[in-house]
Structures are given as structure tokens and as C-alpha cells.
């Protein structure tokens, strides 16, 4: 099942869900080669990709401007932050009148729109001591209970079903994967006729729509 999402300065109608989990291990460092694709037929509709950074990022990678510089500024059209209180996107271009360079937050993914394709090396480590707050719908906090979750390298949940189970299945309404070839969302609910439990890829962000608020510490290896 897919749902149309519009990217740019647009709102995204998405979904995310999470609740309590088990911790297995570790905060080992890693390097991940992650492809950020420019617009290309059959690959990326608008050059937009999700990007999940590690909890402990490399020194100097604090905000959207730092991220654009690290990828290489000329290759990046903009970086977009999902605002769960309104289900909208805050856009930063780094150009004149291009918005505020918002801070990067552990556990939250961003959208990156590319002018040129880049194999981006993600450097850092996950921190098993950090718990991410995944909010249900609540006025001024989350419009629909949708959170933009950063799936990192050492997390053990291999697919959407495993992620829902790790969070606490009953607390999660659905998990959604952004399909950059079409700028749509693939939705998995884990219920009858609820779609396919798609695989999770380190470096990607996923929308998780919550029925209950949870402080979630992902299981790690």
C-alpha cells in the first residue's frame, strides 16, 4: 500500500509507531557508504532521499548547514526536517532567504534533496543509552502521532515487523518507508491486509505512527 507525499516545502502525511524494547549491546563506531541520488528516472523522482545519522556524529556535524557542507554543499539543494507537531517540513537551502540551519537531533531522520548523486560516508556510532521519544497524537506535540525515525547501523530489527515488535507492537499503528523513485510511502501495519513487512536499510529514515507514546531504546548488536 502506498500513500502520496509531496516534498519540497510541503507537508508529509506519514506514519510511525514505537514502544518499549530490549537492549542487546553496543556503541561501536562505524562507517556507512550511503547513496544520495539526484533526480533520475526509475531511481529518484525529485532527487529526495531520507537520511539517518548516528547518535554520536562526527565532530562539527551539528546542524543542516554542517550536513550540507559535509556532503558537499554544491551537490545539495536542501535539507528538510519533519515537524511532527504539524506534519510539515522545515526546509533549509543554505542560500539567500533559505531558512534557518536547524540542529540535527539523535534519533530523527531528515530528507536531503540532491542536485548531484553522491556516495556519502556516514561516520559515527550509536548510543544504546539514548532513548528516543516517539509521541502519540497530542496537541502541540504531534499532529497525528507520526515520528521520523532514524534507523542506524547496529540496530537489530531487520524489517518493519521486527521494528514494531521491538518498540512494542500494540503501541504502533504503522511504519512507512519513503520510496524515492516515486516520492510515495509504502505502509506496513502488521495487521490483516496491512502490506508487506519491508526490509530496513541502515542510513534510511522511516515514519513511525504511534498509538501510545514510548521512550524507545532500540535493540543493538
Folded structure, characterized:
The protein is mainly β and 221 residues long. It folds into two domains: 2-25 and 126-216, no CATH class; 31-124, no CATH class. Helices cover 7% and strands 33% of the residues. The chain is built from two helices and 14 strands. The protein has helices at 64-71, 160-167, and strands at residues 2-4, 29-36, 48-51, 56-57, 76-83, 88-92, 110-114, 118-125, 132-134, 146-150, 172-179, 184-188, 205-210, 214-216. The chain has a five-stranded antiparallel β-sheet, covered by helices on one side. The protein has a four-stranded antiparallel β-sheet with strand order 3-7-5-6, with helices on one face. Strands 2-8-4 form a three-stranded antiparallel β-sheet, with no helix packed on it. A hairpin with a 4-residue loop joins strand 5 (76-83) and strand 6. The longest helix has 8 residues, at 64-71. It is globular, with a radius of gyration of 16 Å.
In short:
This protein has 221 residues and is mainly beta.
Task: Please specify the SSE layout and strand pairing.
Blueprint: E1 2-4, E2 29-36, E3 48-51, E4 56-57, H1 64-71, E5 76-83, E6 88-92, E7 110-114, E8 118-125, E9 132-134, E10 146-150, H2 160-167, E11 172-179, E12 184-188, E13 205-210, E14 214-216
Antiparallel strand pairs: 1-12, 2-8, 3-7, 4-8, 5-6, 5-7, 9-14, 10-13, 11-12, 11-13
